[in-house]
Amino acid sequence: MYALAVIALAAQQAPEPEIDWDKEFGVEQAERDPVTGEIPVEPYEQSNANAGATPFAGNGMARAFNGQDGIRRITARLIELNLDDPRIADIFVAHDMVRLQRTLFEQFCFILNAGCDYTGRDMAASHRGMGSRMADMNALVENLQQAMREEGVPFAAQNRFLGKLAPMSGDVIER
What we know:
By secondary structure, the protein is mostly helical. The protein is about 55% helix and about 0% strand. Helix 4 crosses helix 6 (about 95-110) and helix 4 (about 65-85) packs across helix 8 (about 135-150). The longest helix is centred in the middle third of the chain and has 18 residues, at about 65-85.
């Protein structure tokens, strides 16, 4: 009885060492930029033209989206919804969510004319090889609509914004 108590106590005091499975199987992890927290990407020409759409005129759409703070909440919520959505969550597994959230915010902010520049890649380059389908795009749009609703964006403003984004689907959908 005493021996069992000693073994149980020893097991409580000496937790099993955690195994680094990536190291165990030789999987290399990319180093994140210490400032941005992003995984570095191959160099490309940065341009607002890469955003895929021209910005709205005036500041009405930016106001409808509650400015940069609202746009930031919408993009964060969209990513959260996509990661939780069993229809499309697997698409995002191998992606840098820090970079995605930043560039998606910049893209939306630029298009909504809320005072941002877009520094991401163009839509065709950033989605190449992902194998995106129309069903994936539909799920993402549904999640974006939910994020906009939760932010209180008026329905008409949501539709105007989706109208700006819709032509990009040709650069995103591959199959």
